[in-house]
Design a protein that fits this description.
single chain, mainly alpha, flat, 174 residues
Length: 174
């Protein structure tokens, strides 16, 4: 290697085996705790991905440290997503090719993802449907073709979304 990180544009990825040292283990785990990205962490530590996965499979303590580092990295990414959604980011504004100021942009999408994940009972669109056979009983699918079964399911789905139908417009949602 010539000192440049592998895996970067224009740089070859490391292949084969890497010697395991306390230094490259620490560098890998630190990078993983900052990014939650195995490939980028291997690149930062100068180790081959295959070696990292071999070490993980053969060393329970390293596997536990890896899992903890991933959790820390995911926590950092989650914090950043919330910050960008709540506080926004400053973006430069150009006029005539010159920077004339900034504008703060917020991410509604990031906030919605975070709310969906943290409070799904309130923010996630939960949809469920129950399909029943004659008189509310089970559907006997043993003698139905795939096309027939799809037709039955489609008919019941349309009926479920029809406000004139007794179970009408979204009765089976939430």
């Amino acid at each position: 290697m010539d000192g440049r990180p592998s895996g970067q544009p224009g740089f070859p990825r490391m292949h084969g085996r890497t010697e395991r040292t306390p230094e490259n283990l620490a560098a890998f785990l630190e990078a993983l705790a900052n990014s939650a990205n195995v490939s980028a962490s291997c690149t930062a530590a100068g180790i081959a991905r295959s070696s990292a996965y071999e070490w993980r499979a053969s060393d329970p303590a390293f596997k536990a440290a890896w899992d903890e580092a991933v959790e820390l990295g995911l926590d950092a990414l989650e914090d950043e997503a919330i910050r960008r959604g709540r506080d926004g980011v400053e973006k430069p504004v150009y006029q005539g090719g010159k920077a004339v100021g900034t504008v703060r942009e917020y991410s509604d999408t990031l906030l919605m993802f975070m709310l969906n994940g943290r409070r799904p009972e309130r923010f996630r669109r939960n949809v469920s449907a129950e399909i029943a056979g004659k008189n509310g009983g089970p559907i006997d699918v043993r003698n139905l073709s795939t096309d027939q079964l799809v037709a039955i399911l489609a008919t019941q789905a349309v009926a479920r979304d029809d406000p004139e139908h007794p179970e009408g417009a979204g009765a089976a949602t939430d």
